[in-house]
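Q: Fold this one first, please.
A: Sequence and structure below.
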Amino acid sequence: MKRKTILMVITNLNYGGAQRVFYNLSVELSKRYHVVECVFNFDSGHAFKTGNEVYTLDVKAGKSFLGKLYNFYLRCKRLAEIKRKINADVCISHLEGADYINILSRQREKVVCCLHGSKLYDENIEGFTGWLRKSLLIPFLYKRSGFLVAVSRGVRQEFITHFGIDKSKIRYIPNFFYPEEIKQKSTENIPQVWNDLFHISPLTYMTVGRLVRQKNIEGFIRLAAASVRLTRSKWFILGDGELFQSLYAYAKKLGLQVYSWDDTNSGKLEDYDLYFVGYMKNPFAWLKKTDWFILTSGWEGFPMVIGEAMACGTPTISTDCQTGPREFLSDKDYPDSPIVTHSLERYGILIPLLTNRLSDESFNKLAFDLTHLAKDKTLRNQYAEQSNVRIQSFTPEYIVPQWCEVIDN
């Protein structure tokens, strides 16, 4: 029997969470279908190579409004040509830009859009363009998709409630992980000087991610500043990004002793409070070393890094974003209103969003409570064990068959 041809489309294939999800899904679907990939262009590199056939639309974004509009038309036209050329049965797109051209280039194939994040709470969707996307493009175009797959229950509900999507056309299918592979990578060595630092430090915290607005690294730094005044602890930031300089300056302003990977640092490594370690190809080996992983994001879809920390057996503290973290750390539904203090859940600790709305008094109280909890080795070991249990719900064996149902239905 002839295998179905699946076309997978994404804006780029650089080092991003959605790109990693694209790669994993492409690899797994290739075991059952003929999978072809398509990317807008390779200007930002080709980090994830599956070995599948890859097309590029080779169209840049354009600079002027008319240029952007024309290039958008070209992308739709070229994607339609590729769909006809390979005789695609299903086209699955990832990220909003790819979703739009997938929907508008529809031929005879089934169109599926994978929704990776919240649109309602994404603070980068702002101004006139943001209003245009939220009020017109998102509700108008996504209603014309064949089917939508949301990576979290919160994102699914958001599209039903706020963007008017028929609930029969949208399904929740979480992303998946390879726990054993992550666990194996977590056993690799890190430089000895850092390894020693983890052993001599009484309490260590870590966050991993791009230094961008969404991740709210300011909240992590502010927690560090409040906590080091209460007890000896070390705070590590793994990642690089556009906000590095401003975050470094912010940490210094709060009185922290700050180490930076790209600076000439004086003094011994153990003398610092906060460490900008930079991008690490294998963050799992670092996650395994730390006592606690902390995610301070302002909004998320399905934060892969929580699952990766769980696979490393590292207990997690996370802000209770409108979508995402609660589905990892709790068995409970989303609360009617945002939480205002920490909450001990079955698989980790949820904390309120670390925004300016949280008063200094509430913030300092939160830092005090978290420091007390973090010292509890029994609680830490309990969450480490529960993390290993929880991540088994997000393996390919459970998740990929759900994608096959969408494709074959």
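Q: Good. Now the second chain.
A: Here it is, same layout.
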Amino acid sequence: MRIVILGAAESGAGAAVLAQKQGFDTFVSDMGKIKPRYKEMLDAHNIPWEEGHHTEQLILNANEIIKSPGIPDTAPMVQKVKAAGIPIISEIEFAGRYTTSKMICITGSNGKTTTTSLIYHIFKNAGYDVGLAGNIGNSLALQVAEDPHEYYVIELSSFQLDNMYDFRANIAVLLNITPDHLDRYQGSMQLYTDAKMRILQNQTADDAFVYWNEDPIIKKELAKYHIESRMCPFSIVKKEGMIGYIADGEYHIERPTPFNMEQEELSLTGKHNMYNTLAAGITADISGISNDVIRTSLSDFEGVEHRLERVCKVHGVQYINDSKATNVDACWYALESMTTPTVLILGGLDKGNDYTAIRDLVKEKCRALVFLGVDNRKLHDFFDSMGLPTVETHSMPECVKACSELAQEGDTVLLSPCCASFDLFKNMEDRGEQFKALARAL
């Protein structure tokens, strides 16, 4: 049997190693340049690869294709694979065939990385044999092949879920569903929602489904599903039937093992982080982790880089890096947590954004707006009529300079751009790192 992997980054290279270990005729093809470390990994396992092009006769003879989540279905080679009737799966789907480990899977439009990282932190503190995989950590397939664990905590994007069919999450966590990546889903919110809901597929009565009870889209979608797994809803207010909630300044988990702690002892702050912390604590409780470990872990977790990361204070101005805020809803949560006048940096590669959701918070919280992107016309069209000072910039040095001139002592400069980074930066991390370096150099 022949397995071809399209894309040779973390997931693709890991899938190739596992495929070869399982005895498949394996080939890797990447339209771009393959990073040196992945070339070395493939060469060390004697796996043939190509970069900069796709050779059709080496791909269309596959029995199965493992596709990188970053490659859209509209890519010409993907279209040819589909026309040839060759099944396409994700690296996570492939890896799941070769392990019986417990899978804790987290998805949602916002909060995935923080929640996944916090769950992993709790499991590590509890002494569990656990791996971190999916959008963060190492390739699940590579870990299954070479460094297996009893548990895996996996952050899943909608793109990964699209090509998952038989994979089963023992604990599925669904944080929220808000508009994102609509450019990849034909502008259809329903198609994007359907992808997120796939985290429930194949769950049994032995499994658990942890979700935010008040999310309007989740609530609407659940009415369409017959769910066999244990329902574990949470809320930030006390309501009947909630597994977890916040009440009177206390964080509560009702079952399976009752747990509570003072809200002020939680390391993560802001309303959005209460959702993330409830989801993580419930997941740990379901997994049999003791109250003492949960309490310690929720109080000493240091947060996630590029997510509301306090960078420095310069001339009385606080600089905050929220480069992970690549959609409007993530920016809403960031603005909602601001307590001082804010100079907000917006812009990048627009993914079909509707900025209406943040209009009122921008009016209430912002002193000025700085647009950072190749093409900022959509931002000007929406925000210029609000009467706030705006500055057009096309590089991070320009942007940080403008912010430093606009901000007054006691203000906050917030990079929470609502958009993808690929117009001016290598990725979201590059955008955040440049912002941090320039802010610290002021």
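Q: Anything worth noting on the second one?
A: The CA atoms of residues 19 and 263 lie 46 Å apart.
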